[in-house]
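Lab notebook, design round three. We kept the backbone fixed and only want residue identities now. Task for the bench partner: fill in a sequence for the structure below.
Input structure tokens:
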């Protein structure tokens, strides 16, 4: 007997969904919960192709967006201020506009541009995504979203955004030419660092991200399976091994956890997360479970590219809690 859809709990689930793995969702809920994160799924790809064809056949009239000449004029003024680094002036224009028109695609684009120039990348992503949600064919928003992802060392999502620019934009436009140049650069970077092609990298990265989401929900066994699947596609990065080690630690499997940390360190001997987690794991008795919810860290984004030390931050955090400097023996305790 088929189980009911885990979303509506009414209709029988018929489509296997990675978001609710291993359960299946009904067709209606599949369409309702579908987001760009579903891009590896065939249902998402088919729907996206349909909407693209519908948009092209309607000469761009199949999407209803808010058009207001006065709003666009004010946003343009703000964008000029942003380009000249007059961010306070731009903010005084954009914030009131956003308060009165929170769903306007161009206002959200302006807000995203403002926060991108402020280097507040998470906020910038939020507003660019809102602009795209309001107008799914907003080429400039995709491009700037890609730039922000790229600045955050999120190569996979940056590449996806640039690929959208190539799909939607005029090939002769400057912004499309720039997106094409960046795609080629990223493709070469992926080949040099990971020894694989773009499609393989993106597929492995998508599965890895699913594993991280499962970790956040403390679904350790399923997370391990996701990381193993990711490694069958691309085994050149230490993160899946390190994350599997944490999952095994949460299951009380000391030997397996340490083996995973060693595998991560074999790829990158300076991968501090594996060094620290291995040290913690070695102090546990066989069968003892690692306490607490693991801290999810994008190590290479937060530390690697910024020449920061996770271990140094960890020591400073311990010192702050103790209210005094610590030596190595105290830190081990």
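Proposed sequence:
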């Amino acid at each position: 007997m088929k189980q009911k859809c885990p979303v509506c709990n009414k209709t029988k689930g018929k489509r296997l969904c990675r978001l609710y793995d291993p359960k299946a969702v009904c067709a209606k809920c599949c369409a309702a919960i579908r987001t760009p994160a579903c891009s590896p799924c065939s249902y998402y790809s088919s729907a996206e192709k349909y909407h693209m064809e519908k948009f092209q056949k309607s000469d761009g009239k199949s999407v209803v967006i808010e058009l207001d000449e006065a709003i666009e004029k004010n946003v343009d003024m703000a964008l000029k201020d942003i380009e000249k680094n007059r961010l306070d002036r731009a903010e005084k224009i954009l914030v009131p506009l956003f308060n009165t028109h929170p769903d306007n695609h161009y206002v959200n684009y302006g807000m995203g541009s403002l926060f991108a120039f402020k280097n507040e990348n998470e906020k910038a992503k939020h507003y660019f995504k809102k602009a795209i949600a309001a107008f799914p064919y907003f080429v400039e928003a995709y491009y700037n979203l890609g730039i922000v992802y790229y600045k955050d060392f999120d190569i996979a999502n940056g590449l996806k955004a640039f690929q959208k620019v190539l799909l939607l934009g005029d090939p002769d436009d400057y912004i499309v030419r720039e997106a094409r140049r960046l795609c080629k650069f990223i493709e070469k970077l992926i080949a040099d660092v990971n020894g694989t092609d773009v499609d393989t990298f993106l597929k492995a990265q998508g599965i890895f991200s699913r594993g991280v989401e499962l970790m956040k929900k403390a679904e350790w066994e399923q997370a391990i399976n996701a990381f193993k699947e990711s490694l069958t596609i691309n085994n050149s990065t230490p993160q899946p091994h390190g994350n599997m080690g944490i999952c095994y630690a949460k299951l009380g499997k000391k030997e397996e956890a340490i083996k995973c940390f060693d595998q991560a360190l074999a790829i990158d001997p300076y991968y501090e997360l594996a060094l620290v987690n291995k040290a913690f794991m070695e102090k546990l008795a066989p069968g003892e479970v690692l306490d607490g919810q693991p801290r999810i860290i994008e190590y290479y984004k937060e530390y690697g590219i910024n020449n920061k030390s996770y271990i140094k931050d960890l020591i400073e955090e311990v010192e702050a809690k103790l209210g005094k400097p610590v030596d190595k023996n105290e830190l081990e305790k």
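Keep this in mind before ordering anything: The mean pLDDT is 81.
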